[in-house]
Amino acid sequence: MTRNARSPSFLQRNGLSLVLLLLFLVFLVGQVLTGMEVSNAERIEQGLLPESLAQYLASGHFISATFENWESEFLQMGMYVLLTVKLRQKGSAESRPLDPAEEEERIDPGPAPWPLRKGGWWARLYANSLSLAYAALFGLAFLGHAWGSWLHEVEERSAHGLAPVSFGHHVASAQFWFESMQNWQSEFLAVLSIVVLSIYLRQDQSPESKPLAAPNSQTGT
What we know:
By secondary structure, the chain is mainly alpha-helical. It is 65% helix and 0% strand. The chain contains 8 helices and no strands. It has helices spanning 10-45, 53-57, 60-86, 114-118, 120-127, 129-159, 167-171, 174-200. It starts with 9 loop residues before the first helix and ends in a 21-residue tail after the last helix.
């Protein structure tokens, strides 16, 4: 007797994204609480009143730190999506095969997404929608970082009795680009690590790893 296959539950269908969302929220709350404590300690040392939670969330200290990290993450993911279109790394699970004939495009049965069915510019836009989405997210995060970083500098200068600087002056400063590039370089180092380490190392049952028995020279999963 055969059993009727049960449809996966909501949690089974969305477990990965839900756990990642939960971890994001947990660490964001942790960032807010610890960041507010650090910021208020600095304000007290400067003879200023501590900020409430609402005031801290609108402060340059929080906005700059948050968008500075988001900016680097979206840059990393967007560039990785684009670079892996044309570039290869022999033996890496993160690379497409060196020989295009070895690639297999797996498509589950069902209707194609509506932009493909519509064709024309909709199909072309859809064909590049992932990289375009990351470009937009990076741009928004970059602006958020720039705005928050400027607010933080203005707040710092005010606490020391100095005149504020313009937004343009701040964005052109070495301090702003130091904040960005210290994160950008670490993101590309992290991507490099998974590209190279996946040549020689394995994680059983992970889609980011080659099969355990796969030779080191095998490219792609």
